[in-house]
Amino acid sequence: MNTLKQSSYANPYPNLNAHELGAALLPVLERRFPKLASEFMGLFSHHTDGTRTSMIGIGSEFRLVVTHDGAHLNLQLQHEQAVCLAETVALDVSQLFHEQLFDAVARFVEQLRPWLMEKQGLPASATFLGGWRCATHPEYLSEPLIFTLPRLFCRISEEQLTFSCLHEDIWYAIDERLIASVADFTPTANPRITKREDIPACADYVDDLVGLLNELACTDADKVVIGREVKLTLERPISPAVLLRLVAPRPNPHYEFVFRWADQVAWVGISPETLLRKEKELLVVEPLAGTRKGSSEGEKNARYRQELTSDLKELEEHETAAGLFLEQLATVCENGTLDLRESRSVIDLGYVQHLKSLISGTVKAGLNVFNALAAVYPPATIWGKPLAVCGERIRRYEQIDRGFFTGGLGYFTLGDDANFALAIRMVKLTQSHIHVYAGSGIVKASDPYREWLETTNKMKPYLANEYVWNIS
Q1: What is the pLDDT of residue 188?
Q2: Nearby residues of 445 by Cβ (< 8 Å), 6 or more positions away
Q3: Domain Chorismate-utilising enzyme C-terminal spans what residues (predicted)?
Q4: Cis peptide before 14 (omega within 30 of 0)
Q5: Strands, E, within 135-219: which ranges?
Q6: Residues of the chain predicted below pLDDT 50
Q7: Cα 145 to Cα 140: distance, rounded to the nearest angstrom
Q8: Domain ranges, residue 53
Q9: Would residue 127 count as lying in a domain?
Q10: Contacts of 182 (CB under 8 A, 6+ apart)
Q11: What is the pLDDT of residue 304?
Q12: What pTM was computed for the model?
């Protein structure tokens, strides 16, 4: 068993906050450790209670992987080519897929935690980075969940960088000279886009929503979320770190992330929404629902804000989402601890504005963060209500493969602290394409073309920013 080595360095770049330093350090570590980066590369930055933190992981020491064969979930803790722990769970077709997934992971984590801490000597702070895919079509989902405990891990605060590693051959390369090679980088060459494809096309998207609205008019369904995709063809490859630098606002008050496993597909995002975070016994969710576009012109922005806070459709959509979170959290929180700390406040992202609520509660004894996820995921903000009926409608009216889009990405520790961003405002990046995703909550009062425009506004960080996406 290797001994965990840790070392801290003062932040030598006081002009860079933790998010910026993380984004700048990621490509440095990728170049210094290309073999590790080919196994796994993760960056997760969050802004919680006024404090910015960035986490970077390179390489794969342990992996928590769940695969799906149609009838079973197969859970494994892997180390290199070896399987350390394993469990198989039969699925019940009468129950929601995600609920069964997280219930199974909750039990499995209770096995792997003592194994890793007692037999491998890992501390409670040891951090798994990763997430899960949104199973709109679970029958086609072969790997619904993956988390990686990196070989090299770095936690960045505003004041310092702390590295953790189990291996001497990696550890010797971590020193002040490596950190000194970090610089805030501004890309000098704009990415060139040679083709754009809307999936589905606008007319088809509107037609699908007309059909969906005809169904909703005759039912008691509250909301269904339908996503779409814009596929951009790249003239030449772009690195995930550069793409993040192009689209992330500075300073960024929310999440930004890059996740790439061995298949070379990267998921890059700047999500504004906390799905769930856990700090000791405290659970926090921050649903966003209800949208209006933003503007750099003060009067227009104020008018859009007023429209957002008074529009009955937007208010209905938000109350549906927040109300479902309250119902779900009540099942995993101690009686009397639920607290609606914010209700229908406005979060302004510049390109769009959202209604936001913040709900907290104390988790019941004996439950971990995955028990809580079993209760709250998928939220109405990315799925709808009622859940079972909405899943069936999404499968009929949505024409994309979501992948990690509208899943969750973030981290959990062996001590059961966790922070997961809802995976929105994100893209899938391959060598030749950028796949941009957005969704919209459809209620009976929705206007199909306005929903198209809303999804277009949500995609703006990737389709229209200070660096022009040149279409040849």
Answers
A1: 63
A2: 312, 313, 316
A3: 205-458
A4: no
A5: 145-149, 152-156, 160-165, 192-199
A6: 468, 472
A7: 14
A8: 5-60+151-180
A9: no
A10: 13, 21, 24, 25, 28
A11: 83
A12: 0.95
